[in-house]
């Protein structure tokens, strides 16, 4: 068994002698090595021998614990017992013990999977933290980095990784790359993580091994059966395939007059003998229902197929019906598919929420989704990863909190955003009392110090600093909505890179489904997309009471107002302000919040290590500049309709 000590010596302990660079994530354990660990050798024992600060801990396999990944922690710090049915459960229990947990816990979802949009050339689609940790042109693997990644995932209960982009290259299934997948799987397996692959539906044809990719063609069926057998011979615990088909130019069964069920079931049949699954994405538009309101197309495409998918097919749908916007109502496909297993796809990487520059804690967004879609209706949860080769893994130090939050909510969706934020802050920052000005070598009489928002008199003590950081995180998503797309506005960013405002974007290279003016529909009469019963009728895809609530402008929640209704500029809001006044107020409020985040970060200087403080301070300045740009550009553009 590969010993954890190799990782600690090679990756974690070494950084203790260096500046704080974020490479240790929330795994900031000190190497103690003094605990007596009783029980059979396993990965959990390695972890606890290295890091547990109590005197003795017993690891016990208990067949009476029903869930294979559940654990139970009992006893005192000096006499602790961790029980589980399997070694995987013991591993999760070990990390829970290090978090300070007691009692029993079982994962809510059996599938807790990261989707990596990593390309084989090492680039990452919608990645903001460097290059892929899995793929490069040299076909080499950094086993130490991947094992550290595995440890981080195991610590929060993530049990699966899709290793490549949903816009998959056919080369992914060639033997050279499958051999690398095997190598990666061998590293991840001891940490309880199964590997999955995104597959290009047209792979056999693209590789020149069949003349077609028709899912009902016998040669194509045999090709997938043979390829699947090859994969399982290399990787006996391979999880299955993730498929993006007939969407944004990807090949699929529609190319041959077949249905999504035809395509998914063909792959499912090849995987079934080995226990594998197909995760078939519902993110489709512009194919069969071109011209229909884009947010309606997933339901239009899949509802008629409900109940026709094989048992090992899971429909994977984004949390909202459009595309990971700062705020969307939940996707109605979760209401419509009653006979088909489903899993939710969340985006950890902040494609539309400031990417690698903005501090936006996403747990509140995901909790909002779970308030509408009961976790009990889902087979699993997938998160589009924000991980790359950057030293701090995620580009922004606070973006690590979203990786952490995804894992914790995948284990227990009933955890509060505040609890998760408190856990992450407590484990990530070793907050210390702020040093005095003298200790920092600062001349307290200097005008610069006296006039600075960050002088010692305004600094926060350790406990207050932690509370301030948690408060900032919990307010950050709503702030982002305010300064980007308040009151249900959506999809008004720059087309080429999804960063920054472009509400007037209507250029020749825009497909209609991506055109900002198509979504906000601002004119001299008002603003908003009419999806009520007098408009596109998208409200009818929702179950009651949401259908009626959203349809009636008087009862539609203001946070979704312009998503479902086109309203005049002088429409009176609950605040008493007109719609235009409310928009201006929300943009200003969002900017003011980011100004507050900058001030808070100045106040915690000295309680947070200097390197990470400086790096986050730089990001927060960028975020404030961007928030002001959103406010200026959007109010200028929308205001022009009122002025005229």
Index terms:
644 residues, alpha/beta, eight-stranded parallel β-barrel, globular
Q: Distance between the terminal alpha carbons, to the nearest Å?
A: 73 Å
The strand count comes to: 13
Overall helicity: 25-40%
Question: What is the molecular shape?
Answer: globular
Low-confidence stretches: 4-17, 436-457
Bin the strand percentage.
5-15%
**Can you give the mean pLDDT?**
92
C-alpha-based Rg, rounded: 26 Å
Task: Summarize the entry for a quick read.
With 644 residues, this protein is of the alpha/beta class. Helix content is 36%, strand content 10%. Residues 4-17 and 436-457 have low confidence and may be disordered.
What this model shows, in words?
This protein has 644 residues and is an alpha/beta fold. Helix content is 36%, strand content 10%. The protein is built from 20 helices and 13 strands. The strands form 2 sheets. Strands 6-7-8-9-10-11-12-13 form an 8-stranded parallel β-barrel. Strands 1-2-4-3-5 form a 5-stranded mixed sheet, with helices on one face. Helix 7 packs across helix 8 (260-271) and helix 19 (579-603) runs antiparallel to helix 20. The radius of gyration is 26 Å and the shape is globular. The N and C termini lie far apart (73 Å).
Question: What is the topological layout?
Answer:
Blueprint (H helix, E strand, L loop, with lengths): L3 H9 L23 E3 L4 H9 L4 E6 L9 E5 L4 E5 L2 H13 L3 E3 L5 E5 L27 H13 L4 E3 L12 H14 L5 E6 L3 H4 L11 H17 L5 E4 L16 H12 L5 E5 L15 H6 L10 E6 L14 H4 L5 E6 L15 H8 L9 E5 L15 H12 L5 H12 L18 H5 L10 H23 L31 H5 L25 H6 L9 H4 L14 H25 L6 H34 L1
Parallel strand pairs: 1-2, 2-4, 6-7, 6-13, 7-8, 8-9, 9-10, 10-11, 11-12, 12-13
Antiparallel strand pairs: 3-4, 3-5
Helix pairs in contact: 2-3, 7-8, 12-13, 13-15, 15-19, 19-20
């Amino acid at each position: 068994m590969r010993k954890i000590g190799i990782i600690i010596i090679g990756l974690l302990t070494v950084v203790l002698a260096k500046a704080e660079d974020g490479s240790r994530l929330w795994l900031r354990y000190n190497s103690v090595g003094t605990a007596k660990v009783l029980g059979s050798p396993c990965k959990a024992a390695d972890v606890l021998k290295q890091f547990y600060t109590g005197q003795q801990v017993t690891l016990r396999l208990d067949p009476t614990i029903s869930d294979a990944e559940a654990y139970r922690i009992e006893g005192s710090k000096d006499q602790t017992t961790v029980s589980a049915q399997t070694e995987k459960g013991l591993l999760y229990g070990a990390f829970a013990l290090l978090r300070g947990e007691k009692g029993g816990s079982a994962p809510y979802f059996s599938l807790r999977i990261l989707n990596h949009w990593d390309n084989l050339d090492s680039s990452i689609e919608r990645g903001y933290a460097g290059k892929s940790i899995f793929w490069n042109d040299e076909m080499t693997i950094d086993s130490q980095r991947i094992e550290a990644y595995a440890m981080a995932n195991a610590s929060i209960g993530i049990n699966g990784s899709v290793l490549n982009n949903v816009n998959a290259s056919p080369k992914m299934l060639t033997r050279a790359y499958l051999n690398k997948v095997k190598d990666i799987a061998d590293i991840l397996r001891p940490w309880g993580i199964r590997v999955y692959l995104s597959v290009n539906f047209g792979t056999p044809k693209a590789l020149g091994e069949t003349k077609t990719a028709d899912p009902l063609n016998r040669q194509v069926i045999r090709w997938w059966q043979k390829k699947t057998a090859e994969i399982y011979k290399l990787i006996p615990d391979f999880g299955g395939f993730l498929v993006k088909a007939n969407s944004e130019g990807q090949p699929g069964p529609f190319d041959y007059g077949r249905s999504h069920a035809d395509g998914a079931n063909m792959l499912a049949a090849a995987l079934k003998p080995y226990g594998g699954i197909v995760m078939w994405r519902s993110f489709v538009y512009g194919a069969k229902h071109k011209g229909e309101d884009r947010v309606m197309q997933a339901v239009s495409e899949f509802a008629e197929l409900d109940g026709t998918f094989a048992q090992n097919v899971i429909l994977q749908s984004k949390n909202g019906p459009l595309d990971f916007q700062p705020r969307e109502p939940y996707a109605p496909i979760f209401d419509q598919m009653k006979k088909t297993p489903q899993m939710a796809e969340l985006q950890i990487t902040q494609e539309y929420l400031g990417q690698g520059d903005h501090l936006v804690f996403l747990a509140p967004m995901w909790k909002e989704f779970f308030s509408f879609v009961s976790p009990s209706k889902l087979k699993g949860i997938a998160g589009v990863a924000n991980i790359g080769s950057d030293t701090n893994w995620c580009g922004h130090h606070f973006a690590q909190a979203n990786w952490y939050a995804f894992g914790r909510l995948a284990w227990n969706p009933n955890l509060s955003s505040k609890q998760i934020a408190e856990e992450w802050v407590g484990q990530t920052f070793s907050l210390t009392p702020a040093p005095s000005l003298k200790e920092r070598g600062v001349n307290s009489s200097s005008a610069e110090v006296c006039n600075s928002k960050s002088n010692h008199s305004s600094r926060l003590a350790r406990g207050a600093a932690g509370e301030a950081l948690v408060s900032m995180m919990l307010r950050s998503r709503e702030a982002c909505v305010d300064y980007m797309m308040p009151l249900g506005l959506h999809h008004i960013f720059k087309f080429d890179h999804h960063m920054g405002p472009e509400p007037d974007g209507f250029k020749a290279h825009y497909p209609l489904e991506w055109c900002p003016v198509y979504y906000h529909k601002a004119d001299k009469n008002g603003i908003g997309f009419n999806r009520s019963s007098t408009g596109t009728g998208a409200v009818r895809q929702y179950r009651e009471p949401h259908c009626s609530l959203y349809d009636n402008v008087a009862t539609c929640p203001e946070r979704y107002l312009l998503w479902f209704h086109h309203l005049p500029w002088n429409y009176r809001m609950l605040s008493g302000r007109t719609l235009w006044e409310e928009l201006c107020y929300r943009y200003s409020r969002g900017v003011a919040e980011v100004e507050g985040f900058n001030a808070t970060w100045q106040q915690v200087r000295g309680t947070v290590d200097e390197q990470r403080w400086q790096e986050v301070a730089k990001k927060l300045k960028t975020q404030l500049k961007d928030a002001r740009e959103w406010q200026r550009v959007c109010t200028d553009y929308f205001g022009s309709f009122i002025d005229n």
